[in-house]
Amino acid sequence: MGKPLLCLNFDGTVTTYASGWQGVTTILDLPVNGLFDFLLQASRFFEIHIFSSRSHQEGGREAMINWFIEHGPELAASYTDTSIVWYAAETGEPLLELTFPSEKPPAFVTLDDRSMTFTGIWPDPQALLAFKPWHKA
């Protein structure tokens, strides 16, 4: 059996989302501080999938992959239309692999700037209106 699946939301979790939504293929924001250190550590324990509302839209996954290529580690990388793999410079061993599914995957856990943990008790709908993601708080 493989590693459990960690799903990371893209806009506002992977990126700072300072520019807000600019369209499916336009991504202007920088990585959130510590992103690549986290990804390298997490990849030891999880299969990592990157998902977004842009994932199922034409050009969306390609735009996210291109963003990762631009902002990712300065290591040799190979990529397809659904994944990127970075390789250790010394050994050529795969160091980090990210998958970009077109549909939300069945994750063990998901990190997302716009979600709350459901505890089995329904929240007050009016209280939900006060929710703010970390980059708006």
Provide a descriptive summary of the structure in words:
- The protein has 137 residues and is an alpha/beta fold.
- It has one domain.
- It has helices spanning 10-14, 35-42, 60-71, 125-128; strands at residues 5-9, 47-51, 77-79, 83-87, 94-99, 109-111.
- It has a six-stranded mixed β-sheet.
- A hairpin with a 3-residue loop joins strand 3 (77-79) and strand 4 (83-87).
- The radius of gyration is 16 Å and the shape is globular.
- The model has no long low-confidence stretch (mean pLDDT 95).
Q: Please state the average pLDDT score.
A: 95
Quaternary organisation of the protein chains: single chain
Strand order of the largest sheet: 3-4-5-2-1-6
Please count the beta strands (DSSP E, at least 2 residues each): 6
- Tally of discrete structural domains: 1
Query: Pairing-aware structural class of the strands and helices?
Result: alpha/beta
The helix-strand sequence is EHHEHEEEEH
Q: Low-confidence segments, ≥5 residues, pLDDT <50?
A: none
SS element count, helices = 4
* Broad shape: globular
* Largest sheet properties: 6 strands, mixed
Relative helix content: 10-25%
End-to-end gap: 40 Å
Q: Measured on Cα atoms, how large is the radius of gyration?
A: 16 Å
Beta percentage is 15-25%
